[in-house]
Amino acid sequence: xxxxxxxxxxxxxxxxxxxxxxxxxxxxxxxxxxxxxxxxxxxxxxxxxxxxxxxxxxxxxxxxxxxxxxxxxxxxxxxxxxxxxxxxxxxxxxxxxxxxxxxxxxxxxxxxxxxxxxxxxxxxxxxxxxxxxxxxxxxxxxxxxxxxxxxxxxxxxxxxxxxxxxxxxxxxxxxxxxxxxxxxxxxxxxxxxxxxxxxxxxxxxxxxxxxxxxxxxxxxxxxxxxxxxxxxxxxxxxxxxxxxxxxxxxxxxxxxxxxxxxxxxxxxxxxxxxxxxxxxxxxxxxxxxxxxxxxxxxxxxxxxxxxxxxxxxxxxxxxxxxxxxxxxxxxxxxxxxxxxxxxxxxxxx
Length: 349
Ligand code: ADE
Ligand code: ZN
What we know:
The chain has 17 helices and eight strands. Strands 1-2-3-4-5-6-7-8 form an eight-stranded parallel β-sheet, sandwiched between helices. The protein is globular, with a radius of gyration of 19 Å. The chain has one domain: TIM Barrel (Alpha-Beta Barrel). Helix 9 (189-197) links the parallel strand 4 and strand 5. Helix 1 (9-18) packs antiparallel against helix 15 (295-306) and helix 16 (310-322) runs antiparallel to helix 17. The longest helix has 20 residues, at 328-347. The chain is an alpha/beta fold. The protein has helices spanning 9-18, 34-44, 53-58, 65-76, 82-98, 110-114, 120-138, 154-164, 189-197, 212-220, 237-246, 254-259, 271-276, 288-291, 295-306, 310-322, 328-347, and strands at 21-27, 101-108, 141-149, 173-177, 201-206, 226-229, 250-252, 281-283. The protein binds adenine and zinc ion. Adenine binds at residues 27, 30, 65, 72, 177-178, 205, 208, 256, 286-287.
């Protein structure tokens, strides 16, 4: 559709930043920067086991998913009141606006907070208020996806869904996150069936560290609409063919995969191969405060490492918009903006 030829890195980076895009895989608790963790700890009288922000950042050296989750849950312990949840999400939205995110679907982990005695109301009301302000003040369409912690029993997930129902209008879907290996999707079949019956969208983390069988289980047992991560699909040819045929979106998070040692180097990432195989892959930030970059950083660094060009940029942005849970009308609007953005870019040649 657009002229394809080599583009200078500065121009490609300007295009990556300017193009309208959706972020479909961001844990809002993973956007808590150390500065905000310290500010909230002081506000709420919470003790942190670090002398200062620099010492906390220095501890962000992970070997795998679990080594990250231990710090991520500790960081989230400073969140206590409605305003804390608002401040966290608002801080993320300001960064998303700078990256030209037009649509954000935020994961949140209520069990991490309710287990500490934080009321569900504080979590829901604070995050929802920030989403409303994102629309009115930043023109970002934002919605919430409630995630169940898979290292806890399904009974806890069922109780969490029940406890969230008074705020049914405040979230559009459910997801499954936390420690993957040893906690397969099929363990959560009943709670996902219940969520589907309630008209909620359903997604699940699968194939981040876990085997392709977990991706199959998320598709077949949970009937998910999108797979979060899914990079291990590359090891199963039949699964790759299925994902391509059904155009099941994968929300891939390259800097996360690098920091959690799923790949040794960004240039080893299989995102380019998945795109070439016809899968509906998208680029996302996962836990940007911990993994060294927000959405645009993920695009810029991945494009440089994999030598991707403007045609791929268009495809990733279009995939992100089409794979979102926004309305058809919104999608048409953003696709029109995306086409205009690329038209303007190719006319400058
Ligand atoms: N929770 C926050 N980030 C996560 C990730 N990358 N995988 C699983 N659970 C998570
Ligand atoms: Zn994630």
